[in-house]
Amino acid sequence: MLRLVTALRHAWRFLANNPKLFAGAALLSSLLFISIIGPLFVDIQLAQPLSVVPNKPPSSEHWLGTDSGGREILAVLVVGTPQTLRMGLLAGFLGVAIGVLLGAVAAFFRRMTDRVISGVTDTMLTIPPLAVLLVIAVTVHSLSVELMALIIAALSWMNPARTIRAQVLSLRELPYIHMARLSGASDLRILVQEILPNLLPLTFANFVGATSGAVLAGIGLEVLGLGPQDTPTLGMTIYWALLYAAFSRGMWWWWAPPIAVLIILFVGLFIISVALDEFANPRLGRRI
Amino acid sequence: MVTAGLERQIGSASIWNPASGWGLLANRDPARPLALAILRLHKPPARIESGRVILAGSDILQLDREALRRMRWKEMSFIPQGAMNSLNPVMRIRHQIADAIRAHAPAWSGAQIRRRIEELLERVGLAKQAADLYPHELSGGMKQRVCIALAIVLEPKLIVADEPTSALDVVVQRIVMETLKDVQKQINAAMIVIGHDMGLMAQSVDRLAVFYAGRMVDTAPVRDFFRQPLHPYSQALITSLPSLKERKPLTGIPGMQPPLFDLPSGCPFHPRCSLAEARCKVTAPDLSVLAPQRSVACHIIKERINDQHQST
Amino acid sequence: MTSTNLLELEKITIRFGSSSKAVVAVEDLSLSIEEGQPKIIAIAGESGSGKTTLGRIVLGLVTPTSGKIAYRGRELASMTQVERKLFRREVQAILQDPFSTFNPFYPIDHLLRMPLKRFGIAHERSDMDEHIRHALEQVGLGPSQVLGRFPHQLSGGERQRVVVARCLMLKPKIIVADEPVSMIDASVRANILDCLKGLRDELGISLIYITHDLATARQVSDELYILYRGRAVEIGSADSVIQEPAHPYTQLLVASVPQPNPDLAWTGETEPPSRTSRQGDRSGCVFFARCTHRMPICETAPPAFRHKHRDVACYLYDFSQTQQPNLMISNEYCRSTKQHD
Description:
The complex is a heterotrimer. Chain A is mostly helical. Helix content of chain A is 74%, strand content 0%.
């Protein structure tokens, strides 16, 4: 119990010294809050179509009003936000995991391994991810959140791979790597024990960027109507709003809330990446 | 007085004669803030708390920005450590020198500038063709000589050289130091050389000032210094030097230099000093003149010298 | 090549890159250390001389382009796993930068525990602690000063001593020390150098001491190799090489060292060299371009000639060809007028 308290205290002090990180984390936490606590207060069934009286502006009964399909917007937010978050985090995590693995292995083992992996990386970089996504989405008809995450990850691992590869190329020449070798450590052990931990800041920064990119790609698809048809994700909500001409009908309560949530998400991720950049880039003068 | 880091006194600057070379000997940085402060190149959190720096009759610390800018490079210039890294990698040498000239002597014509560049390169022993090269095409020693040329471009009265040869090989070091001394003589400038290589100091400067824990603890003309070092730290340093000419047992100084923010009480050297007495732990000694042109900051040595004087 | 030698390097050459623009780091270098006769070999040279690369070869971190390196009679390239592990354990290193010798992510003891586990010396934590404690005591460090601390919390001198302690724990036969004191405060250097000498005297460990500082090389080593552009131009006992340098480059090097005595004139070259050697030009003597004693024969690379118990790669010491013996070249670089004061 005491350890938990001291750990929390450390975390608090850490956050207090890093206002940007704190701000970003706060923004993201608010979204998590909606996702986790929301269902306790809001009836998520109301996010399904034909559950409530449609086209109603915000009132005491429905805080954010209802849309043309008979869904309550607040419930839609509570249901859709975690979907978007899940998709982004999953895609970001997978993409970075693949990228770190391939980049580190390429840089550490060099020669043929490096040639092959770098060749594949560079080739795949030329493929426009959104175009591929579009084609797949149109063909498959109904994309689930998981499938979308998988496809996005498969098309976004290249950037992390390149940055991690560059970092490992310089790390592997450092004296402490030689010392590890002289201590009898095998190549694999050196890679995992000595190099990987020093990649954490860069990896995390990549992760934040990848998540952001994944969410954007997902939203892009959904707004075109190619997302999951049965789940009210944020992107799909915007799509329906566009389809039903919510703008011209003045139904701001329909399209504004999802956009607001997305703005909070992107700004939160951006601020965190700026804060992480301060750690990674010594010239910006920040220390943990 | 100059204060840097977490508010520690650095030392006092004194007036010296032109055409002489001062060496500031310091291990691990304490003298560098002083040199930078003289040129007012120091950055916060360092700040100059008190004292004066008088060069050619005017107090540098009192000058406003424009007067300071005009004074820089014309009256005083700087050769930084790792000078090879202070050359702009995407500009030819010619343009970098011309840049310096135009910034401080805007009235010169293009022809004048060109002639001066050639003259300068010759002075530092570089071929005229070097002017058209980029820094990466020159060797370390050549780059350093370009930096020397840059420093003397307007024939300043004072040159501050911060570890001018630390990244160079011993053979190139000889050449560069010779160039520096030549140049100093030619333009009759005073020079302050900051470094930690005692051999280099012995062969290059006229007067030496030793720094310890941010304070000047010993100054003397260089011959007197090496013949008879007075301060215990100076003595210990000289003894600990590995000799090239003969085999001697290796002796170091126990302990290590304290960090500037955590100095011991009294004399900062007392934990490592073989002469330390009770009073050394309590009061820090002042730099006192103990012989013509020699000052030492040590209670015990001061006493000994005074006793000697009294008995003669 | 006798199999009784602990370490044997025979005509090692390392070339980086393709043949047209190849950079030769080390050329035709031979070195040996005998079993049971520990000694300190100093490899001295300026930057670009190949000395660091040589250290890496001995440590098995770089494979030579040609030539053989063998440990305990077995060539490195054809060692079995077991033999290789033994080699790794018995040949250790002390590197130049005491800060980056340690992985900043872990505390200092990480580097001490790793070899104990990997080489099977100790597995239990308490066992390891015992070994570490003992070794730290030998270098004058208290365990509380070191264990659990991170690299940035110790000074450069302390860190370097921890590295020496690590070496002691593993009981190596050979230690490659690459500029071990160049980044250490001057007043602390002597202690560490003394420590290194102790390793030879008390524990029978041979050292390969790589440095650019001739003075420390003189104080510490038995044998001295002077390297220039990858070749050993002079090899001999440290005392004789420095007191009476034979090869023109050695003479230049010794004369260029500034003496901490203002009355001793600082000699050496004061003019920049009129010709510099081009990287690829290795057909003749490596020092050809800068040598003031150039002769036509120097256009072919000189072999090592024996002169006063030393190996000097210079035709000036070739007494076989001429009828009259070549007089020892007057050391025109050393024009000191007053010797001692």
